[in-house]
Amino acid sequence: MSALFDKMRRRAGRYLDVRPVTIDPPRGVLSLSFDDIPRSAWTEAGPILAEHGVKATYYVCGGLSGGRNLDLPQFEVEDLQALHAAGHEVGCHTYEHVSTLTLSPKGLDASLARNAAWVAERLDGHQMRTFAYPFGDCALGAKAVIDRRFLCGRGVRDGINSGRADRNLLQAIGLESRRLPGYDLEKLVHDTAEAKGWLIAYGHDVSDSPTPYGCRPEDIDRLIRLAKTAGLDIRPVGAAWEQAAR
């Protein structure tokens, strides 16, 4: 019964309280993002991004710093400072890496405030501008909280953002070994270019033997090369929002 109830709550969060925005960039856009920040998302993906001259968005949970998640080492503060200094966007998850389905709006706001303070203390006052829902779970009452604090919120529902979109639950595709075989990346990139849409990709760990939620270095390289060939503009989520949202 609990699983069914949570499924209904996810559907309510997806389809209700939509805060519409028009996505209309001058040309198609790709944004790369990494959730939770397993250490390999920086140590392995960072050099690939640097080789291509591409900036990504890293969604941070302060409570995971220096710890383990999915039995993988998570980022150290020095990693966060290095990726920020390299010009990548630092965005917000919940501090404790918990689903918004488990938090009241007041509890969510407190978690976000705690994360904001934690990040600002370590990144010279940096203010996070975009949010990604842990596990992709968007509780109905969460959207108003996200709307007050951020430019936009990103979920995990497959798709290209084009035309009318929900500013607090943008669509994305998973750079995850469990999802990648089901995508036609060439078509997704082509369709993004044709529609002048915004394709957001999210991943977690990066290695030759990734978890089901991670990808290989060559997967990142391939998507970037496809995007460049198609003429997509590659920007972090915050910068893409400023260009694409109307």
Structure description:
This protein is of the alpha/beta class and 246 residues long. The chain has nine helices and twelve strands. Strand 4 (68-69) and strand 5 (72-73) form a beta hairpin. Helix 3 (45-52) packs parallel to helix 8 (217-229) and helix 5 runs parallel beside helix 6. The protein is globular and about 45 Å long.
List the helices and strands and how they pair.
Elements: H1 2-15, E1 20-23, E2 29-36, H2 39-43, H3 45-52, E3 57-60, E4 68-69, E5 72-73, H4 77-85, E6 89-92, H5 105-122, E7 130-132, H6 142-149, E8 152-154, E9 163-166, E10 173-174, H7 185-195, E11 198-203, H8 217-229, E12 233-234, H9 237-244
Could you give a short description of this structure?
By secondary structure, the protein is of the alpha/beta class. The chain contains nine helices and twelve strands. Helix 3 packs parallel to helix 8 (217-229) and helix 5 packs parallel to helix 6 (142-149).
